[in-house]
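Mods, move this if it's the wrong board.
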Amino acid sequence: MSNPQNLRYSKEHEWLSAAEDGVSVIGITEHAANALGDVVFVQLPETGSTVTAGETCGELESTKSVSDLYCPVTGEVTEVNEDVVSDPSLVNSAPFEGGWLFKVRVTGEPDDLLSADEYARFIAG
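Not the wrong board. Structure tokens:
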């Protein structure tokens, strides 16, 4: 399992792309997708809503359990991935590509986001 070097990661297992025009893409890591099992339903924040770093903003439901989705940054949701809403299995098959969850116009970022190497050490325990 490899974590793309160009992303940053939260300890809640979300990833965050570098901002383009102030907007970052957010998804869950491959580690989280594997731990969840087959994702069968996603509840994402609404476009235009405000999300806060470290707070829940949605849910992922798998054949094993329901897991809260945490936002790694503060900002306004600019887009949700409708492909994932209609086909939640994309979270498992392509967590860093087609399985992204939503985009945020970032207004605040915590200091504890991890690099790919730091995240790898974190999940290794």
